[in-house]
């Protein structure tokens, strides 16, 4: 059923996507992953080829609502009557992946302190803790080329990503992709935790490197674990409940 803020011409699928993405922005903010009015989480709209949602440029993550997300196509054209502009740095990178990767339904890019720090050291993320071991062999890296506003960088981004769906942009930050909002959230949460722990460990001395054999067993056993509702679904739902305890305006 349409809500007061859902436009009559808007499909139920689009409104549901708006609700999920707005909730995700608020969860990211709750966890301290905001960066002024910058960074982005985008989500494809089911049933609309080439259409996806992005945050309105100029608003903080804590101000994002289902109704003020901007609907654009992969060429950067606005598909709704939003009064807000779109940050080109977010559009160019995200549109590239949405265009070429059918399974990249939700994409998140952040500049967290831990993510930027680990992306700025030789070797990147190392298998030295529980969370990092889950990402061993699963992370792509892309060298820093400046702010991502040039389309010609896209070919190199795709080549460096390959078949992976998690990337550390060197000297820049975190980029994760998921088949759902919840999966993208969980990838980001886990990678952020891995980076935070690596930072803490670095201040204490030489870290213990987990062997490849143990990493393989760890990843096998994690993969075997049954997760109700799909990857990250229960975790994301729990975080949305936390957001709702103090502010439910994202639903508008």
Which terms would index this structure?
single chain, 252 residues, alpha+beta, L-fuculose-1-phosphate Aldolase, 8 helices, globular
Report on the structure:
The protein is an alpha+beta fold and 252 residues long. Helices cover 39% and strands 12% of the residues. The protein has a single domain (12-246), classed as 3-Layer(aba) Sandwich (L-fuculose-1-phosphate Aldolase), CATH 3.40.225.10. It has a 7-stranded mixed β-sheet with strand order 3-2-1-4-7-6-5, sandwiched between helices. A hairpin with a 6-residue loop joins strand 1 (40-44) and strand 2 (51-54). The relative contact order is 0.15. The mean pLDDT is 94.
Strand-helix topology:
Elements: H1 12-30, E1 40-44, E2 51-54, E3 70-73, H2 88-100, E4 106-110, H3 113-118, H4 130-135, E5 140-142, H5 154-161, E6 166-169, E7 173-178, H6 181-202, H7 212-224, H8 233-244
Parallel strand pairs: 5-6
Antiparallel strand pairs: 1-2, 1-4, 2-3, 4-7, 6-7
Domain Class II aldolase/adducin N-terminal: 19-199
InterPro entries: Aldolase-II_Adducin_sf, Aldolase_II/adducin_N, Aldolase_II/adducin_N_sf
GO molecular function, one term: actin filament binding
């Amino acid at each position: 059923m349409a809500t007061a803020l859902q436009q009559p011409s808007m499909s139920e699928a689009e409104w549901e996507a708006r609700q999920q993405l707005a909730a995700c922005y608020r969860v990211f903010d709750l966890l301290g992953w905001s960066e002024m009015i910058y960074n982005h989480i985008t989500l494809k709209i089911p049933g609309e080829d080439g259409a996806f949602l992005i945050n309105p440029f100029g608003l903080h993550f804590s101000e994002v609502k289902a109704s003020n997300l901007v609907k654009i196509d992969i060429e950067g054209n606005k598909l709704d009557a939003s009064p807000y502009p779109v940050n080109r740095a977010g559009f160019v990178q995200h549109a590239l992946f949405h265009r070429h990767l059918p399974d990249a339904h939700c994409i998140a890019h952040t500049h967290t302190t831990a993510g930027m720090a680990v992306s700025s050291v030789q070797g990147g993320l190392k298998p030295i803790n529980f969370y990092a071991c889950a990402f061993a062999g699963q992370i792509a890296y892309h060298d820093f080329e400046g702010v991502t506003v040039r389309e010609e960088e896209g070919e190199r981004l795709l080549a460096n990503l390959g078949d992976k769906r998690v990337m550390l942009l060197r000297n820049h930050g975190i980029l994760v992709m998921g088949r759902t909002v919840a999966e993208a959230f969980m990838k980001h949460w886990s990678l952020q935790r891995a980076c935070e722990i690596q930072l803490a460990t670095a201040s204490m001395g030489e870290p213990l490197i987990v062997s490849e054999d143990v990493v393989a067993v760890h990843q096998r056993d994690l993969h075997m674990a049954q997760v109700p509702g799909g990857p990250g679904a229960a975790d994301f739902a729990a975080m949305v409940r936390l957001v709702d305890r103090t502010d439910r305006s994202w639903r508008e």
